[in-house]
Amino acid sequence: LSVMTARGNGTAMTHFILLGLTNRMDLQGVLFGLFLLIYTMTLIGNLGMMALIRSDPHLHTPMYFFLSTLAFIDVCYSSVVTPRLLVDFFIVDKSISYIGCMAQMAFFLLHGTAECLLLATMAYDRFVAICHPFLYQTLMSRETCVQLVAVAYTLSMANSAVQTSNVFRLPFCGPNYINHYFCDIPPLLQLSTGDTQMASIVVFLVSAVVVLSSFLLTLTSYTLIVSAICHIPSATGRHKAFSTCASHLAVVTIFYGTVIFMYIRPGSGQASNRDKMVSVFYAIIIPLLNPIIYTLRNRDFQRALGKALRRAKSQCSKQRQKAAPT
Q1: Which of 7, 67, 107, 221 could form a disulfide with 127 if both were Cys (CB 3.0 to 4.6 A apart)?
Q2: CB–CB of 241/193 below 8 Å?
Q3: Distance (Å, rounded) from C-alpha 269 to C-alpha 272?
Q4: Do the Cβ atoms of 181 and 94 come closer than 8 Å?
Q5: DSSP secondary structure letters along 75-90
Q6: In tens digits, what is the pLDDT along the chain, a chain of 326 residues?
Q7: How far apart are CA 120 and CA 126, in angstroms?
Q8: Which domains, from first to last, does the chain contain?
């Protein structure tokens, strides 16, 4: 039973209970192992990418600066949701405090919005690199890159504050079971005992402004990029340019597609079991895919990784030689 406290003429919740990803007991162990593997690989991939970019001077360029920032966001983004999901597979008490639920939503929206805006920024970076190569160093200076990331985080904090306060100003005086594995907007709107029509409109409008504006900027950038690539006379040059952008476009398609489905489609304020499956893609899978997609066919990363492995191997050999008896 929920623990409640008096507030005015009614009662208000002090905590919620997460129903989790599934209630099938036979799947708990399998899903725990799967998501633990995904989370571990997410941390290794993104933290490794950040370390590699930081350690190799050849990767100190605008594109890799944005990739390093994306890796940081993915670590934070995934860590807001996945550890709690893993714990809930094996505990009976899946309750989360009112303040804890609010904090989880706020941080999830913060990093989710930052990822959305950063993907658009990265599309603009590729547009400048391909369509205006001679102005690239001027237009995408270090100061400009830092400012773009700062603006993305500022807008993300504003969106997080607006969306979180929009949801938690509503009354929650009835059942406290959240049909989800984390505190997301649609299941909480469904749980509120007040009139959620205006709150749903705010969610739709704010999400549409943030997501669709980022998506349109990305789409415009890639339209101009494709047009510029088609005018490259060399087939090798066209292939290299398309290869550079293909990985980014794959991530963008998955991320924006699932986010638009969750927050901007008609009836997005109503939670369902299908929504939980969709949210796995943008909350858990995308942070894993980013380092894989961006590094798998990237020759700069392959060279930097090869250098790092050779350096580590050389250091291990020296340590063994020092430790060997004379």
Answers
A1: 221
A2: no
A3: 10
A4: no
A5: HHHHHHHHHHHHHHTT
A6: 343 333 433 456 688 999 888 877 888 889 999 999 999 999 999 999 899 898 888 888 898 999 999 999 999 999 999 999 999 988 888 899 999 999 999 999 999 999 999 989 998 998 898 888 888 988 999 999 999 999 999 999 999 999 999 999 988 877 788 888 999 888 898 888 888 888 888 888 888 888 888 888 888 888 888 787 777 677 766 676 666 667 677 778 888 888 887 777 665 545 557 778 888 888 898 899 888 887 766 777 778 877 877 887 777 777 777 766 65
A7: 10
A8: 4-299 (1.20.1070.10)
Provide the token pair at 41: 């690989």
Residue type, 237: G
Q: What gap in Å lies between CA 196 and CA 82, rounded to an integer?
A: 28
The whole-angstrom separation of Cα 157 and Cα 123 is 22
Task: Supply 117's token pair.
Answer: 């805006």
